[in-house]
Amino acid sequence: MRPFDRALVLLAAALFLMAGKSPAVCEEFSLGTLDKLSKAVRKATDQWLPHIVTVETIGALEGQSGEIRGDVPISGVVIEKGFVLSSDLILRQPSAAILVVDQSGKRFSATVHARDRHRDLVLLRIEGDGLPPGVDPKNAFVEFEPTIGRTAIAVGRYRDQSPMMARGIVSATERLNNKAVQIDARVSPAFYGGPVIDLTGRLIGLSIPAVGDGMASDATGWYDSGIAFAIDAGSLAKSWKSLSSGDDLYRGLIGIVASARDPLLSDTKIAAVRPRSPAASAGLQVNDVVTEVNEVPVRKHQDIRQVIGRLDAGDTVKLGIKRGDESLDVSMELARSIPPLRPQTIGVSVAEIDDNNAKEESRIVRVTGVAKGSPADGILQVDDEITVTGLQPISGRSDLEGSLVTHPAGTSLKLRIVRENNGIDLDIKPVTIRGELSGWRTEVEKIADLPKASVEELRLAESSLKSFLLAPDPTNLRDSQPYALVLHLLPHSDSEIRDSLEEWQDAVKNHRLIVLAVAPANETEWLPQESESLVSLVKSLKKRFNIDDDSVSVVSHSIVTGTANADESDTMALATCISQSETFTGMAISSQTTPPAIRLVEADGVRPTEVLIEAGAEDELPTWSAALSKAGYPVLWNEKVEREIIAAWTTRLSWL
User: Fold this and answer.
1) How far apart are CA 441 and CA 319, in angstroms?
2) Collapsing DSSP states into helix, strand and coil, what is residue 591?
3) Edge to edge, what strands does the sheet with 296-297 contain?
4) Side-chain-side CA neighbours of residue 159 (13 Å)
5) Are strands 413-419 and 610-614 parallel, antiparallel or unpaired?
6) Which candidate, 311, 399, 383, places its Cα nearest to that of 351?
7) What is the structure's pLDDT at 10?
8) Partners of 587 in beta bridges
9) Rounded mean pLDDT of 73-102?
10) pLDDT of residue 356
11) d(CA 92, CA 75)
């Protein structure tokens, strides 16, 4: 008896003993139950095995270290006659040819008929005599929501065409922004592109490589982990309709920007409307509150993502909008692409203060600092209250952020402020956050009489990372001003990790700064999933210290020490900040960094993560920096990036 089956027998025995039954009766019942279950699994999979093929490539290029190679054979499902639906993992590495192999071992040359870039699927076309039989899409792609706990069977084929199965249960629905089902079966890469079915043979979905939002840098990072995803049958029906006609599909974009970095907060206010977007064309405005999406009530921006997540570019969406006392219904067609946001700055720090005189919930935005040499220098003053930008009233920091990120570059922004109870109209010209690092962002006035910082080891029960903290004693803090946080990543498990913090003492003396030096659990390398542990470390520190959410950076060891060559800490810093952009607002890395095996996610917030690279001129920037810039990440460079510069830059990440 297999260990898994023996475990089921023991579980059943325990249940029967609790009911007063003997172990002998229990084992007889358990074996009978297992036999029935095995027969049900075989009966369900037998319906699908004739339609499951292997998909492989010839002449694929090598992938990055740790990445599943594009030429690893995966599975596919034959649809009708001559079509094969599979995961687009097979296309992520250039190759000379694509082959489809049926259960008899017969090989067919395949071409790409259409691609669903939204759901990571591809529809292949095969031709020739003796094509494998296909399933009827009208019968197979029937939308239904499987109950949590329902048996889920992932089916695929090995390279030698023998069938394989992995059994588990449905553990979650509406995952990956409402287009996938999560199961707990241990799914390896060979299963990708194969069906996931229930005990009746009904299609639950199609296996794809994926990880949860912000959970790992590589979509294949969770294979064989007991956490797997399948594009649900309802989404497959929608996808098939377009793919079979030869039309590619893309994620539908709307162009609204959330006011909070965390999409799970109870807030659906629009902080910014992206120029040349469906939202802009439909007349949506800053401070509009989204109440419904396609008649589904929403309370947070993640709810909005969930509804729109099932829609493709070209689909129409209807929003319920609350604008002041007015309720509106606004419809628009989702776009395939929208120009990225280009954040701008004027060089001020601000604080939000309750406005007790306002009729509705509102915050006064008060200037608390003006950087010398910045656009605001000589125009704004400490204690000015910003009330209007352009024609838009300001009721909080996010409104000002939204105005700066959507304002036309190179033009003056009109401000109305209150100074000593007098209303004043001003013009100020923001600058785009890109290019050479501005001097005012690093020439920060040093703060005297800061509490002395000391080094301590930081341990978390859920993390095996090695980390030491350089910070003041929280009980000795003399005021409530927030601190900035720098995570200094080391390339390996360094025995001198504590000593590396001592080099930060001068920078910490001059700035409200906390530094956390972190080494990987493994003695030789960082693992992609350890980015989650870095987030946990930040959360634990925020419970002890008043840390500014907008001033948290990750820096590599090579950039801190001035080492000529990049190391693994550079790659990890880049992967972490892209996959965990809701936590980290800046990264400083070497121009020699090897980019990770990662699907670049577009930066869509009002304050996207800044990328600081050590380079003497723009033409010395690495080629991969262009992709980051195109995706909306502000790319900055400076000839020298040392601890003092990192400290000053990090503290001013939150400045507007």
Assistant:
1) 40
2) coil
3) 296-297, 289-293, 316-323, 326-333
4) 6
5) unpaired
6) 383
7) 36
8) 554, 611
9) 88
10) 60
11) 15
Quick one: tokens of 16?
A: 């029967």
Cα separation, 635 vs 627, whole angstroms? 10
151-157/121-126 β-pairing: unpaired
| Helix (H), strand (E) at residue 374 | none
Cα distance between residue 590 and residue 622, in whole Å: 9
User: DSSP strand E in 288-339: where?
Assistant: 289-293, 296-297, 316-323, 326-333
Which residue type, as a one-letter code, is found at position 512?
Answer: R
Percent of the chain with pLDDT over 90: 32
Helix (H, G, I), strand (E, B) or coil at 125: strand
Backbone angles phi, psi at 215, to 5 degrees: -100, -25
Segment 123-164, tens digit of pLDDT: 999 988 889 998 898 888 888 788 898 888 999 988 767 888
Whole-number pLDDT of residue 216: 43
Cα 302 to Cα 292: distance, rounded to the nearest angstrom: 12
Mean pLDDT of 527-548: 88
Average pLDDT, the chain: 83
Distance CA 585, CA 90 (A): 33
pLDDT surpassing 80 at residue 31: no
Q: Half-sphere exposure of 33 toward its Cβ, with a 13 Å CA cutoff?
A: 14
Other CB atoms within 10 A of residue 267 CB: 17
Give me Rg for the CA atoms of the chain: 28
Helices (H) and strands (E) in the chain, counts: 15, 35
Residues in the chain: 656
pLDDT at 354 over 80: no
Decide: 310 and 179 in contact? Cβ < 8 Å.
Answer: yes
Tally of CB atoms within 10 A around 199 = 16
Across residues 336-351, what is the average pLDDT?
Answer: 88
CA distance 86 to 89: 8
Phi, psi dihedrals of residue 43, rounded to the nearest 5°:
-65, -40
Residue 564 DSSP code: S
Identify the CA nearest to 431 among candidates 373, 359, 387, 516: 373
Find how far residue 179's CA is from the centre of its chain: 16
Tell me the range of 35-44, 464-473, 605-614, 645-654 where mean pLDDT is highest: 645-654
Specify whether the CB–CB gap between 207 and 194 falls below 8 A.
yes
Kindly report the backbone phi and psi dihedral angles of residue 191, in degrees, each rounded to the nearest multiple of 5, phi listed first. -80, -25
Q: Give me 322's structure tokens.
A: 């609350």
For residue 168, the tally of other CB atoms under 10 A from its CB is: 19
Cβ atoms within 10 Å, residue 395: 21
The closest of 165, 167, 197, 198 to 184, measured between CA atoms, is 167
Per DSSP, what are the bridge partners of residue 123? 85, 114
Asked if 232 and 179 count as a contact pair (C-beta separation under 8 A), the reply is yes
